[in-house]
Design a protein that fits this description.
Helix 1 packs across helix 5, helix 3 packs across helix 4 and helix 4 crosses helix 5. The chain has 165 residues and is an alpha/beta fold. Strand 1, helix 1 and strand 2 form a beta-alpha-beta unit. It has a single domain, classed as Collagenase (Catalytic Domain), CATH 3.40.390. The C terminus is likely disordered. It is built from five helices and five strands; from the N terminus they run βαβαβββααα. 30% of the residues are buried. The chain starts with a strand and ends in a 12-residue tail after the last helix. Strands 1, 2, 3, 4 and 5 form a five-stranded mixed β-sheet that branches. The longest helix is centred in the C-terminal third of the chain and has 17 residues.
């Protein structure tokens, strides 16, 4: 695997981003690409937003008028990606994460905010690489297994109170 560039921007003011979260996101992106044997340089954009911002995006892009935890905007299809002509990196896409929603879910599931953000990042990265769980079935199971494998590799395994919602 070549270089990975993760561009992180904080577009919300509601929650202070804990120290180490940006590094965790970078490690998580790297772990997913390594797990998937992604051979090329890659570029990923991650934005922190609040609930209202993600609700608006969910309404605009998915026609769902509801707050969600994370949205993925893949830039590729069937393994073909746009390329940053300056760096040669494949542009995988954008991850938009609601930090207030991640905090709520961490509390609900009884684990740390770091674990929740790591999980949402792994989940979104798999979407950027073409995985989809919307139809359930085997692909949903495979995606969940990969998410949990990455979380274990990062030292953030699921707690016993975690349930698949």
């Amino acid at each position: 695997m070549e270089k990975i560039k993760v561009i992180i921007s904080n577009r919300q003011k509601q929650v202070k981003i804990p120290t180490g979260v940006r590094m965790l996101i970078r490690r998580c992106c790297h772990a997913v690409l390594q797990l998937e044997s992604f051979p090329d340089s890659a570029e990923i954009s991650v934005s922190f937003v609040d609930n209202e911002q993600i609700r608006e995006m969910n309404r605009q892009y998915r026609d769902k008028d509801a707050v969600t935890d994370v949205l993925s905007f893949p830039m590729g299809e069937n393994g073909h990606y746009d390329v940053n002509h300056e760096t040669g990196a494949k542009i995988l896409g954008d991850i938009v994460l609601s930090v207030p929603r991640a905090m709520e879910q961490a509390q609900l599931y009884g684990h740390s905010l770091e674990r929740e953000i790591g999980y949402l990042t792994a989940h979104s990265m798999l979407h950027l690489l073409g995985y989809d769980h919307e139809n359930g079935g085997l692909e949903r199971v495979r995606m969940r297994e990969k998410e949990e494998l990455v979380m274990s590799q990062l030292g953030l395994p699921a707690s016993s109170s975690y349930t698949d919602a």
